[in-house]
Every structure is written in C-alpha cells, then in structure tokens.
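so my prof wants the structure for this chain in the tokens format not the other one, which i didnt know existed until like an hour ago. anyway here's the sequence
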Amino acid sequence: MNILQKQLKLMKNRSFYLLFILVIFALVNGCKEPEKTHFTGQAGEVKLITLAPGHFHAYLVQKDMYDQVDSTVHVYAPPGSEVEQHVSMIENYNNRDYNPTFWDLVVYTGEDYLERMLEEKNGNVVVLAGKNHNKSNYIKSSVEKGLNVLSDKPMAIDLKDFDLLKKSFESAERNNVLLYDIMTLRYEITSILQKEIMSLPLLFGTLEKGSPENPSFITESKHYFFKYVSGNILRRPPWFFDPGQRGEGLVDVATHYVDFIQWSCFPDKIIDYTTDIDMISASRWSTPLTKRQFESITGEVGFPDYLNEYIDNDTLLQVYANGEMNYSLNDVHARVTVKWGFTAPKGAGDTFYSLTRGSNANLIIRQGEEENYKRVLYIQPSSSPSINNFEETLLREFKKVQEKYPGVELKELDGLWKVFVPEDYYIGHEAHFGKVTDKYLHFLIEGKLPDWEVPNMIAKYYTTTMALELAMETK
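here's what i got, hopefully its the right format
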C-alpha cells in the first residue's frame, strides 16, 4: 500500500468516526428532555396561548389580570364565529368600566392553527376550552412540545380519549410540564364548608358505605342551554349539541361531581382507578329541542348536517346531555345525575342537590326555589348518631369552621341546621375560574402538582368514560 492509499484510508476512517459522533450527538439531543421553565412568580413570566377557543370558559380564564401572567396572549384557532366571539368578549373585559383588563391578543386563524402553535411556541402555558373531541389530541401535542396545559373539563369524552390522556400525563412528567384541569366546584363556598365539616369526626362521624339502592353520596344537577354569561346571552356553538364533539352529560358536567366526591370524601389520598372504582350501572337520555329553540341558542339558521342522526322529522333535535351513574369508590357507594333543559322557568336558574351521609350527621346542599337558586348547606342528625347530645356537639365543633370562615352561622329550621354564609363568600361561578388559575400559577412556581392530583384526575376520567361506555351498552 503506497503513501497515497494510506492517507485516503486514514481520511475515510476519520470521516466515519466523525459521522458516527455526529449521529450519536443528534440522537442524544433528539431524546433530551426539554429544559424545565423555572417559574418564580415574577411579573409576566407566564405567557398564555389560547388554543381553539370554542367555549365561554376560555375567556373566563381572562376575566381578570394576574401579576404573573404577561398581558400579551397568543390565540391560535380555525377561522369562524367561535374565535370571533372569544376576541369580542376579551375586548369587553378590556373596555368595561369597573376593573378593566388590558389583554393584548395576537390572533392567528387558519386551518393549520395547531401546527403553527406547536412550531412557534409563543408562550409556555396552553389554555384549552372548546370542542372536546379534539382536546385529548391538543393536550398530548402540547405537553410533548414542552408546554404546560390548563384545560377546561372534560379532558376525555370516551375510553379512547382516556387512554390518550394517560399517555399525556406520562409525557407531561417526562417533559417537566404541568397538566391540570379546571375544577371550579372546589372553590364554591358550600362545597368548601362541607369538606371542612366532613373532617370533624366528632360531628360528622365516619362516611357511610351505603349501597346501590341507598348511596352515601348523591349529587343531582339541572342546567339549561339558554342562559346569560357576563351580562350577555350565551351563544353556544352548534357542535355543543353533538355528543360526538362535545361529549354527553356523563362525561361533561358529571366530571365536576365525580371530582367533588373524590376531593371531599378522600382528601389528599391517591385513588387507583384499577382497584378502587367499581362502576355498577349507568344510563343516558335526551333533551328534545325544537329548531326554533336551537336557533335562539346558537344564532344559526337550521340544523347542521352533522346533527342529522339526532333529528326527528327534521324538526326535533334529541340532545344526549342527560345521564346517571351508580358506582362505588373505595367501597363507598355514590350516584351522580345530570340533567339539561332548554331554559329555566321565569325567575329560576340552575338547580343542584347533594346528600352525604355520615354516621353522626348528613350534609345536604340544596339550590332550588326555597334557596333563591343559591346553594345552601344544611346539617341533619343521622338516624342513629353515636353522640348523646347532637346540638351541643354541633355548636362546639362548628366553632372550628367559624374560625376559618368568620361570619358563618348556624340556625335550626325544622330539624335541619342551616348554614348561613355571608354574601362575600358567594363569589359566583365566573370568579371561580380566576381562583383555579391562581392555584395553577402557584403550582407552576412549586414546579409540581400535589402527589394525589394526577392519579386522581386519571381516576376521575376513568369513572366518567366508563360510565358512558356502560350506558351506551345498556338499552
């Protein structure tokens, strides 16, 4: 071999090794976890991205300003009336007389809105509230790109979405981002007070196990399609009435009540959906809407074609928004019922009822005509309390609640003890979104969620999607 041949061979070897090193470098960097954004609470460090807003909960997140959140918010959405309504409502908040906001929206509309959002990454927190059948994919795509996600419920509307959601939580952990859903009921005062009382064993006793026929935890709510939000008629998009896009009542509104049961009955405890939940029975039924009613809610003319399979005689839309599930959680039996109507009777509003049975006391929340459609908590002695003097124990133990919530009082009414709550504690449903956002911002600073939050979110969506699966099988 001459000198020239030796030099060529050496160059080939060096080129091979150089190429080998470059390939290894590319593979290592390709698999490298995204750097974690370190949030400190400083002004403007959280930069919001609103993705495909199609539900009014998207703009309620921005009803107020937050010191930690930058005023510039990037919006990515398909073109149409939904993003236009979102922008219009944010402008209303900016121009209101009392406590105006100063959001600066940078809006991109186009069919490639998701790809553009993921490519440009003009923020570090994605806010989701829109078509629910796309949500699981939006979540997974976002967390895989190293973006935190604050999502409206539901994050899954069927078992396929549930499997995708589990993978999203795995990706979120791997990529050092926080995925969290908006559970407003945790910030409603009667829910808070009920949880406080359940933590007083001398008063509440122990949570009863109950049975399928006589559950220990019952919730029942009724909502209406036609309503006002922020002083304006709420225009619901036509897809809201398509169970394939929105999801049915068992996987939508019921999410709040399943969360309420987990959060109040088993606070700070991890729930394993594979062993702790037993779905016993479930059912579903429709609410009929006339074409005229549908048009008054949506502002559209006629039914869109994708609703044809739910329309009777071209005049009556059957909306599958109602459902009931019976299940046990850690052997405690629960029943969740959700109902929807067109509009509330004059002077009325949404209604809610819940019953939680303890060995010493039952806790009842009512939101009906007698309560002026505002939630009120009642305490009732159980049928056979283990304490000798219920009233004495009640008044003594309730002082612990009053220490945390000054101004809250008790008054006996026909065998029930009504909990009187000062008006300041009733901040309203719209304000609850700000409370959730504040909590999420706190989690971002801590860099993690409580240990029980992720497994319990998974358990919650297993419960709702499994209930729908069972209801679909049940004739």
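also thought this was worth mentioning. The two ends are 85 Å apart (CA to CA).
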